[in-house]
Amino acid sequence: MSNSSRTFVLASRGSQLAQIQTNLAMDNMKSLFASSKADAIPKFTTSFMSTAGDKNQSQALYLLGGKALWTKELEVALIEREVDMLVHSFKDVPTVLPEGCIIAGIMEREDPVDSLVVKKGSPWKTLDDLPNGSIVGTSSVRRVAQLKRKYPELVFQDVRGNLNTRMAKLDAPEGPYAAIVLAKAGMVRLGMGNRLTSDLAPPLLYHAVSQGALAIEIRSNDEESLKICQQITHRETALCCLAERACLRKLEGGCSVPVGIGSSLDGNVLTITGCVTALDGSKHVEHTITETVASEEQAEVVGTKLAITLIETGAKEILDDITVDREMKIKLAQEKDEKIAT
């Protein structure tokens, strides 16, 4: 326990959800010292900033270069000691961090499942209820790839923006969307859980790696921050999320790669399922591993083993096709931008 009177600055993106999550982390840290009789105890404050992902709301995530969109500016501020801790939605954090940065804390996970939200006033509750040709909004190729397998008659269309923006686009009377797919955790944290009409749970839809969890990133040489973050880390969440991230790291995926995951920990027994799905839903590779783990390192070994099995059973071909597709779309987007510029 730190007896320092230092003030720790917790930073995140400026969205309403990011601010709620940062305050949640700060409250957890403050509670560690609530009963302290020491004269000098740490203080905590917050700082919020806009990232490249927040600023570019027009292009599909598929073309924008991955998860660093949400973290790069924050990490610059961390490295330059303008702030001390970054509070992230763990699913937005790249699996390889900048030199000098580490994940020091992983807070207890909300339900990681994806959920359906239908347009306000509509009678539908589930994807099965939607008429053929209905437009379902999501910015995730992972969701589209998996859902196309069961619902080829639905039209999946990109929808960008923070949760409030996406909800406004959904509910707009003249808007095209019959429904959108969102992470349940964010809606619950925003106090909008009442709008969720059905969960899209595995095996229909495997969620994103680390979805539902909050992670604290610090400078690797900041011992005081490390000690505080370790005390708010939730063991089950940490082991599951680190296994999931190890799987994704081995598959070399980013937020635009349709890697789905699901994991659970029973005592020391970790069960993890991973899947890779072709963009059109035509190919799908899925595998489950169950092993005993006693440390974060062992959990990461299990996640890596799962990725190797997926690669050996067909995932590599799917990911190679996706890479070619993305490069072609990036080229077309660049050519379009050049024409507009001239």
Describe how the helices and strands are arranged.
Elements lengths: L6 E7 L2 H16 L11 E7 L2 H4 L12 H12 L5 E5 L11 E6 L7 E5 L16 E3 L3 H10 L4 E3 L5 H9 L7 E5 H6 L8 E3 L13 E6 L3 H9 L3 H17 L7 E8 L2 E9 L6 E9 L3 H46 L1
Parallel strand pairs: 1-2, 1-3, 6-7, 6-8
Antiparallel strand pairs: 3-10, 4-10, 5-8, 5-9, 11-12, 12-13
Task: Kindly describe this structure.
42% of the residues are buried. The protein has helices spanning 16-31, 52-55, 68-79, 141-150, 163-171, 184-189, 223-231, 235-251, 296-341, and strands at residues 7-13, 43-49, 85-89, 101-106, 114-118, 135-137, 155-157, 179-183, 198-200, 214-219, 259-266, 269-277, 284-292. It is of the alpha/beta class and 342 residues long. The protein has nine helices and 13 strands. The model is unreliable at 53-65 (pLDDT under 50). The strands form three sheets. Strands 2-1-3-10-4 form a five-stranded mixed sheet, sandwiched between helices. A five-stranded mixed sheet has the order 7-6-8-5-9, with helices on both faces. It is globular.
Largest sheet: 5 strands, mixed
Percent of residues in helices comes to: 25-40%
Shape from CA axes?
A: globular
Hey, roughly how much beta strand do the residues contain?
15-25%
Oligomer: single chain
How many helical elements? 9
- Terminal Cα separation, in Å? 60 Å
